[in-house]
């Protein structure tokens, strides 16, 4: 996927997450039954803030991801996603940016990761209150599979699930 397509994917999925979560802030996310719409919105806000911090150099690989509460997420979500898009658009792909994977520590990693994080959570958000989610675009889904295979070591489960010591919300999953 080229840069324009990656940014467009984020522009498409970002607002849809916000719309679906705001429509059912206390409703269960069917695909993440331990979460409500507000929990999902807070999770995505934490992700976009973390990526921005990594790209602007105010966070390191060891920095914990921000924990955002639901009320703050309701207020800040749209601005957070807009700032992420602006940061990703302005940051050269080869700029240094630490990550947890075996991929190079560059901004390109985080642009790709943001595409997939938001696509998956857009799908999740659309399951709120037993909604029927739209499919993830074929090019995004295909690249998500390629990303998974490229950036993971065999058996490496860092950043996934309650066993992750960096997970600020035990019982909640984390894709990054």
3D structure, described in words:
The chain has 176 residues and is mostly helical. The protein has one domain: dinb family like domain (Four Helix Bundle (Hemerythrin (Met), subunit A), Up-down Bundle). The protein contains five helices and two strands. It has a two-stranded antiparallel ribbon. A hairpin with a 2-residue loop joins strand 1 and strand 2. Helix 1 (3-23) packs antiparallel against helix 2 (37-56), helix 1 (3-23) runs parallel beside helix 4 and helix 2 packs parallel to helix 3. The two termini are 20 Å apart. Mean pLDDT is 88; it is low at 157-172.
CATH homology-level superfamily: dinb family like domain
**CATH architectural grouping:** Up-down Bundle
Please tell me how large the radius of gyration is: 15 Å
Helix count, DSSP H or I runs of 4 or more residues: 5
Mean pLDDT: 88
CATH class value: Mainly Alpha
Terminal CA distance reads 20 Å
Question: Using DSSP, what is the number of strands?
Answer: 2
Helix/strand structural class: mainly alpha
Task: Summarize the biggest pleated sheet.
Answer: 2 strands, antiparallel
Strand content: under 5%
From the spread of the alpha carbons, the general shape counts as globular
Number of domains: 1
Element string (H = helix, E = strand): HEEHHHH
**Unreliable segments of 5+ consecutive residues:** 157-172
Across the major sheet, the strand order is: 1-2
Helix content: 40-55%
> Do you know the CATH topology?
Four Helix Bundle (Hemerythrin (Met), subunit A)
